[in-house]
Amino acid sequence: MPMLKTIAGHTSARGICRYLTRKNRALASDYINIDVPEGIREFDWAKAMDATRRSFGNDLPWRGKRVRTYKHYVVSPDPKDGIALEALRDLATSWAQEHFSEYEVAIVYHDDNEHGIPHAHVVVNNTNIETGRRLQDPDPKALAASLQELAEARGLTALRPPQATGVAARAQRRTPKRTPETFRSEYVRRAEQELTERGEYSWTADIRARVRIARTVSRSEAEFRSILGTMGVTVADNSSKAERRDWIYALASHPSRRISGERMGLAYGRERLEPLLRSGGARRFEDAGERAIAAIAKRAVMVGDLAELRNLSGAVALIEASHARCLDDLDALLEKGGGEATPQLVGYVKDKRLLPKERPAPVTRKPTARAGIRPAVSRPKNDAAQPTHQSMQDKRRERSER
């Protein structure tokens, strides 16, 4: 279980750079958004960070407060994991890239502790190189949780914080629910992306594919859980003490491989899916298409055909993103070269008959009367019973002449 320690810097980065590189004790270094000349082992990355801060005016105090010039994070793996240097570099750079991709980052590796365990020093400059704004202090708990998740994805042991009890638990329950960790509907973490790009198995991507299929064809929560069950995924409510209500998905064959919905994106979380399923589901497919998707998914899981499951999930994602209602829509999208449409995916949709050839006729629904509002009653017109203004004048004239 890697530990994360946070230290704030308030001076030039030269001091931390000298500390980390003195006496040639640095095992290796990695950089993000810092150009390093080839063939140079000792590079003065502090000079680059200081120059960036000065150019944006971010080395000056703000509203009378002492300026925070950089953040220093120490990533310390569990000695029991016996992590090698290259594995640590992969973990540290992936974590830094996930949270600080728009900042200058220097990562220096040491093994000068008591047991000679390699650990990483991650130094993040205070300036966003895209916007020029100062680094806002990220949530330490979110950073630590992300590190644990990345470590677990690499086969390392992950730290699970103990549940609060007593007074702390009651105070936690009174605290308003916090915002989600990401506001993206689809959120693919770096570890999952790298495994997928290398063509290797990612259990997170596997769960994502099955949940995407189930949410597309389900019209109620019960049906959603049932379809996921046939595809080998269990659904459970997260802890009542959690800060946000969510569902926990897990592979039935490997219960330890579990992930909350919102960690894959808001579109997979309980807060988004529950009202959608309560209202009858997404209904992006005709009945025949939904039956075909459910049958293909069930058959693929039964025979362990993960490639078929990925193809089906990709086709469903394409149809969702493009709002295609028929094959003609996908052909038009393919001609324009827009979105994620590829000849392979479009051909898969046609071969499996997931969409009709032509756009279905729109369904006409009668408006439903809202409670407490009486429908308007049409009354028959009767011109004789409704005298006009002109006829009333004529009658008055006749009476005066008499």
Structural class: alpha+beta
**Spans of 5+ residues with little confidence (pLDDT < 50)?**
367-379, 381-385
Number of domains: 2
* Shape type: globular
CA radius of gyration is 31 Å
DSSP, total strands: 8
Main beta-sheet strand count, sense and barrel state: 5 strands, antiparallel
Q: Helical region count?
A: 14
- Our measurement of the CA-to-CA distance between the termini, rounded to an integer number of angstroms, reads 111 Å
Give the spatial strand order of the biggest sheet: 1-3-5-4-2
**Strand-residue proportion:** 5-15%
Average of per-residue pLDDT values? 81
Write the element-wise H/E pattern from the N-terminal end onward: EHEHEHEEHHHHHEEEHHHHHH
List the topology elements.
Layout: E1 3-9, H1 14-21, E2 28-32, H2 45-56, E3 70-76, H3 85-99, E4 103-110, E5 119-128, H4 140-153, H5 166-174, H6 190-197, H7 203-217, H8 221-230, E6 233-237, E7 247-251, E8 254-260, H9 270-278, H10 287-303, H11 306-322, H12 327-336, H13 343-352, H14 389-401
Antiparallel strand pairs: 1-3, 2-4, 3-5, 4-5, 6-7, 7-8
Task: Produce a short descriptive summary.
The chain is of the alpha+beta class and 402 residues long. The chain has helices at 14-21, 45-56, 85-99, 140-153, 166-174, 190-197, 203-217, 221-230, 270-278, 287-303, 306-322, 327-336, 343-352, 389-401, and strands at residues 3-9, 28-32, 70-76, 103-110, 119-128, 233-237, 247-251, 254-260.
